[in-house]
């Protein structure tokens, strides 16, 4: 049981890569047969270039995920390395997100409308959403909390609780 965690990661990575491979093949086959073969008369050079660029990007990300997430075995069959965990956060998750956006765009542009190519604007939009606050904090242009917020943040929970108790005590009137 020394490598139980590594074996679980290797099995999960293998399953994830297999699902990714099946998805790549099925989505691209559907797009090719439906959009390029069946609707050839409305297929333009611009759409062809968009398809080639997005498919190439997806294949590059698949190759990166495959090379980093594939387990490596010794000659005797023992596990040397489980590969990087493909369920981790960070760039790995972003690569999966871009692959999924590409699949969505390919299916929707094949069956619904070519205007779904604009969905790709979500990717730089999300990147700007993540990067702009980082850059602003680096430049020192962060939102300063108001005076009341800074005072309440500087008091501990105990101080706030004691103040509430003190204020509550002055409102209670005893009658005999």
The low-confidence parts are: none
Provide the structure class.
Answer: mainly alpha
Helix content: 55-70%
Rg from alpha-carbon coordinates: 27 Å
SSE pattern, N- to C-terminal: HHEEHHHH
List the strand order in the largest sheet.
Answer: 1-2
Distance between the termini: 73 Å
**Strand composition percent:** under 5%
The biggest beta sheet is recorded as:
2 strands, antiparallel
Shape: extended
Number of helices: 6
Q: Averaged pLDDT, please?
A: 82
Number of strands: 2
How would you describe the overall organization of this protein?
The protein has 176 residues and is mainly alpha-helical. It is built from six helices and two strands; from the N terminus they run H-H-E-E-H-H-H-H. The longest helix has 35 residues, at 4-38. The mean pLDDT is 82.
């Amino acid at each position: 049981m020394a490598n139980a965690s590594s074996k679980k990661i290797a099995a999960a990575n293998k399953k994830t890569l297999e699902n990714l491979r099946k998805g790549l093949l099925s989505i691209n086959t559907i797009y090719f047969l439906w959009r390029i073969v069946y609707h050839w008369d409305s297929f333009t050079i611009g759409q062809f270039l968009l398809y080639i660029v997005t498919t190439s990007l997806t294949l590059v990300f698949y190759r990166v995920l495959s090379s980093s997430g594939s387990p490596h075995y010794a000659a005797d069959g023992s596990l040397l390395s489980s590969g990087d965990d493909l369920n981790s956060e960070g760039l790995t998750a972003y690569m999966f997100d871009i692959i999924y956006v590409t699949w969505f765009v390919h299916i929707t542009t094949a069956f619904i409308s070519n205007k779904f190519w604009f969905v790709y604007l979500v990717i730089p939009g999300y990147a700007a959403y993540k990067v702009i606050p980082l850059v602003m904090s680096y430049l020192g242009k962060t939102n300063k909390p108001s005076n009341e917020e800074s005072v309440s943040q500087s008091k501990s929970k105990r101080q706030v609780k004691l103040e509430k108790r003190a204020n509550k005590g002055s409102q209670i009137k005893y009658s005999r």
